[in-house]
Amino acid sequence: MNLDQFRAMLTLGDDTEGRTVLPVPDPSVERIFGGQIMAQLIVAAAPPGSAKAVKSLQIAFPRAGRAAEPLYLDLEQTHDGRSLGHRRAVAWQGQESARRVVATASILVDHADEAGRRYDYQYSAATAGDPTAAKPVDFAVVPGEARVIGDGLDVEDAVAAELGFWMRCPDFTDTALAQPVIAYISDWPLIGTLLKAVPGVSQRDAHVTVQTGVVTHSMWFHQPFDVAQWLRVQIHGVRLVGGRGFGTGDVYTQSGTHVVSFAQESVVRTPPKGMQP
Fold first, then answer.
1. Whole-angstrom Cα distance, residue 107 to residue 42?
2. Domain locations in the chain?
3. What mean pLDDT comes out for the span 43-55?
4. pLDDT tier at 115 (50, 70, 90 boundaries)?
5. Which DSSP symbol is given to 35?
6. How many CA atoms lie within 13 A of 35 on its CB side?
7. pTM for the predicted model, two decimal places
8. Residue 107: pLDDT above 90?
9. Which residue in 40, 160, 174, 188 has a CA-CA distance of 20 to 30 Å to 26?
């Protein structure tokens, strides 16, 4: 996805009945990508030029979105104080009288200008790194360059459920795009990372022999960052049991500053006999 396509995805508009429409970049795919919805909700909750910025987002996906159908957004401004504000969002499809809810979200916003905030401590050590020492890789979900650190995701031998990669989007110099880009990317690598620890299975088996899907996803934006510069993304598989997976992720600048955290709960299971994933 290039810059123009990404901007088009974030350009929300109203239909003839006054409903806010979330653009779907590729109506030919089977399911709407959850990262797309998260990126769009960030823009809806704190539009470019807003005095507030998104600080955290918690989203649940009760069912898969159908890419061929229009996707609508209801956004409620539940609170807007001097500092903190809260938005509640529902993304849905179908008719108003029989909504098919695709996602519900709780979004916290705060002042975009952090000048005067006194405390700045980073409690987990992170050293500076060299992206050029990592292997170039084609991650389709990254709208720019990516370099993998160590093993990628197409590993069928049981290895540690960890993934590290560098990424940057040199054309994305607009700072308003930073949060939507990371939200878009963050939805993708966690399930594949969990599957690295399972013998004989990899991300290539998702929706083929393994039933997978994101159930909930949470993000915390600690401070502003620039996606036009190199960022290191670290994914950690935490638990896979009972058909559910859980993993976390962290994003660092090249100098080692921790800028984003995220966590995801997912469905990862073998489908019942005779049923397709």
1. 8
2. 1-113, 135-277
3. 93
4. low
5. H
6. 19
7. 0.93
8. yes
9. 174
